[in-house]
Here is the input.
Amino acid sequence: MTERLQLALPSKGRLMEQATTVLAEAGLVVRKTGNERGYHGEIEGIGKADVLFVSASEIAWYLKTGKAHMGITGADLVQERMTDWQARAQLLKPLGFGFADVVVAVPDCWLDVRTVAHLDELASSFRSAHGRWFRVATKYVNLARQFFVSHGFNDYRIVESLGATEGTPAAGTADFIVDITTTGSTLKANGLRILDDGVILKSEASLYASKVAEWSPNIREAQNVIMSKLGL
Amino acid sequence: MVAETAREFEALEEQARKLLSAFVAAGHEAVAPAVLQPADVYLDVIGEALRARSYVFTDPDGDEFCLRPDLTVPICRLHLERHPEGSDKASYCYNGSAFRFQPRGADAAHPREFRQCGIESIGAGDRENTDAHTLALILKGLEESGLKEWKLRIGDLGLFRALLSAIDMPERWRERLRHQFWRPLAFREELERLTKPVERHAVGIPEELLEGLDPARSSESARKVARYLDDHGIELQGVRTLEEISLQLARIAADRRAERLPVETANLIEGYIGVRAPARAAGARVKDLIRDVGIDITPALDAYHRRLQLLSELGVDVAKAEFSAEFGRSLEYYTGFVFEVQVPDLGEGSPVAGGGRYDGLMKMCGAPAKVAAVGGAIHTERLLKAVRG
Here is the structure.
């Protein structure tokens, strides 16, 4: 339908700045069209491409549904939002910013828990002592579930948490968490420790292409220009 | 497809009326628990794995509900609503829809929505007797509905527990084996792991802490752990107490000092799980297996034989029953006797009825203590199909 390549970029904050900087360094200067506060833009010198400024988590959805042909967002969000992400998207290039790890972190005082296997061992006695399974607070419901399944650990309940996840063990709404961390200092400040085998995903901002978007020759051409500028 | 469902509805209702009247005549009260259940109970009982096979959703208030995947948990909740203590004696029967997500796609043998008709007996003390009456009544219902040919598969998780208790090993290992019983692959791995050197069990846990901890001296262990936390500036947080943490550490420490599980013992457990035999011969098979190693589980075997005897007295042809030690692994809440009624035409994967003992479920649903309970359910669409031939 549209004969123009749709490139989705983060709409605000450091991610937006870094994404536009990386593109500019490759000679792809992104400019907003219309209102400075608007959400549309273009790339200088590429006539057949539109830039869509979208929240980072929604970019995954744009790639998943084919609303965008290309997009820059975190690997964590892509893998969380698309359980079958490899079927729907292609990783073109990790961009070297927005580093973050998705990790399992438990209260530091749990001296008896260093690995997922220790959690699994503990599950039954925890349950008999407290009358319920472990509660795991996370916004990465799918990543957490897949990771625990691959470790044969099933005895927990997920509590969806949309913010301040690190605070949930202290608040008593969860026992441990699956969350994103960059330096680990927030975890530490909240008395939490990453399990020795608790890194689920090492994430960074990356450029993806959607496999389900409609790729006409004109759009391919625009993609090729972008790719060659990026050295791909 | 809709039209087909509507056409079957009358036939299914007709069949259910017959089943229910047989159940009511046997003293079961007919009840109709809610279709929509709080997901909490199920997720707590079955775990997050439930989400993969049920319809769980969030309502506009943000609360999680599910379309009931069976009627046993709803009946337990209904019983608790009436009797908060949970231990009052009651017998129920029901007929209604249950829902399962079919990851490989739904078909006639594995529908998303089906109707279950069944019975539950809660709080009855004589376990073998109630087990036998439950199965006999289910079979009576099936036969009165016109089912002629069937065979029976039975299991007894009480035997497995008795075997584990009788084998000399640290309680922690037993707990782990019981815990993993439901996952055949993990169970085998765990069993193998227990026979091997232990270094990796305690990997990462500070050595200075493990030295000298002893599960039998809990207050001393707790003091030691408290001192460690203090020295390292770690604050206690969350619901786990200092005692819980130090007990688990002491168990890990004791585990390291314990001798490994002898390979022969691991083989014995594997051997037991592999037992499949005609119901009457199975007891002897199990006895043969354990006699040489000097293990005695007479009370559990007696209970097994007494149940068979009671079934015979109730007119059940136990020659049609096959015992499988592994059977019962599919649903984590069963604790004792389990059964499944199979029909040759429908195949092993599609039993027309099944059930068992679930003495822990009432407590998981909120009763203050464990309550003896056993039940069985008929898959009514399959029954109708089997009767029509």
Remarks:
- Chain A has nine helices and twelve strands.
- The longest helix of chain A spans residues 116-130.
- The interface with chain B takes residues 107-112, 114-115, 121-126, 129-130, 132-133, 145, 148, 152, 154-158, 169-170, 172, 175, 191, 196 of chain A (CB under 8 Å).
